[in-house]
């Protein structure tokens, strides 16, 4: 049995037994190399699931749909390691409970091979090596290092040019599982905290506010990069923020569901080298 058939069978069994009311996975997309979210409520619908190297979206964001988990029934979801990290973060921030989610974990290795991850409960994955040592693709790290090597003035000009493309569509916010506020600060107009216009100041305000809000919280799934219609490398900002948090506090966002949010906790031995 291939891995796709294995996961279809597992999803169908979860639905048949009544253990879950819904399984969120992937179905065929508009082209051969695209996949779209598929919501299966019956074993028959589970036979439509697709699992291959094109299944790259972080489906954990759908777990936050209003009312989805309010009836106390479990939901199954296909998740890569970055998606599992996202669930861990959401649990640590009291947005989910571990018992609400059944995980069908998988990994994409070498950009083309799909491998199964053993376990179904969040505790089965939380301390796994794939979770803590999850790193962005080499091209992301290479681009980040190139920017880090720039002078402050060069970095400012680089991001000024990139952010100038922003059209304030907020696709990055909508696709991110960590952006779960019912009313985002950019939607508040009395007072108007962040300008809604797509000009230099407004674009800097939005993208930097979002970066600050994701400090120590980004699961490095790359959903923001993929969603951006003008190809701003947003992942590079979040990667750098995560690197700073790891260096200062030895904290990896989503490493396990028991950790407290790094910026909402205090330790006597926290380093203070960043204080001027």
Descriptive notes:
With 276 residues, the protein is α/β, with parallel strands linked by helices. It has two domains: 130 residues, no CATH class; 127 residues, no CATH class. The protein is 37% helix and 11% strand. It has a five-stranded mixed β-sheet. A hairpin with a 3-residue loop joins β4 and β5. α6 crosses α11. The longest helix has 16 residues. It starts with a helix and ends in a 27-residue tail after the last helix. The mean pLDDT is 90. Keywords: Iron, Iron-sulfur, Metal-binding. This is 4Fe-4S ferredoxin. GO terms for molecular function: iron-sulfur cluster binding; metal ion binding.
Structural class: alpha/beta
Q: Estimate the global geometry from the Cα principal axes.
A: globular
Number of helices: 11
Strand proportion = 5-15%
The sequence of SSEs as H and E is HEEHEHEEHHHHHHHH
Tell me the distance between the termini.
59 Å
Strand count, sense and closure of the main sheet? 5 strands, mixed
Mean pLDDT: 90
Name the helicity range.
Answer: 25-40%
Gyration radius (Cα, Å) is 20 Å
Total discrete domains: 2
Oligomeric assembly: single chain
Low-confidence stretches: none
Give the beta-strand count: 5
Q: Tell me the strand order in the biggest sheet.
A: 2-1-3-4-5
InterPro entries: 4Fe4S_Fe-S-bd, 4Fe4S_Fe_S_CS
Domain 4Fe-4S ferredoxin-type: 156-177, 209-239
Organism: Chlorobaculum thiosulfatiphilum (Chlorobium limicola f.sp. thiosulfatophilum)
Protein name: 4Fe-4S ferredoxin
């Amino acid at each position: 049995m291939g891995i796709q058939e294995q996961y279809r069978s597992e999803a169908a069994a979860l639905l048949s037994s009544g253990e879950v009311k819904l399984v969120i996975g992937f179905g065929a997309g508009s082209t051969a190399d695209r996949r779209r979210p598929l919501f299966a409520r019956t074993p028959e619908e589970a036979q439509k699931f697709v699992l291959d190297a094109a299944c790259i979206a972080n489906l954990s964001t759908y777990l936050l749909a209003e009312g989805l988990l309010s009836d106390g029934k479990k939901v199954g979801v296909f998740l890569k390691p970055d998606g599992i990290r996202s669930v861990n973060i959401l649990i640590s921030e009291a947005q989910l409970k571990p018992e609400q989610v059944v995980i069908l974990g998988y990994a994409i290795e070498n950009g083309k091979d799909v491998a199964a991850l053993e376990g179904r409960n969040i505790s089965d994955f939380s301390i796994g090596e794939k979770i803590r040592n999850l790193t962005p693709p080499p091209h992301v790290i290479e681009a980040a290092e190139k920017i880090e090597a720039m002078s402050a003035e060069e970095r400012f000009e680089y991001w000024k040019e990139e952010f100038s493309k922003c059209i304030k569509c907020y696709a990055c916010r909508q696709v991110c599982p960590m952006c779960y506020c019912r009313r985002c600060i950019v939607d508040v107009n009395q007072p108007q905290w962040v300008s809604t216009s797509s000009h230099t100041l407004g674009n800097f305000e939005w993208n930097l506010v979002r970066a600050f809000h994701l400090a120590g919280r980004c699961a490095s799934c790359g959903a923001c990069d993929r969603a951006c219609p003008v190809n701003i490398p947003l992942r590079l900002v979040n990667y750098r923020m995560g690197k700073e948090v790891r260096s200062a506090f030895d904290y990896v966002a989503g490493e396990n569901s028991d950790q407290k949010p790094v910026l909402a906790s205090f330790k006597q031995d926290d380093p203070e080298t960043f204080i001027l």
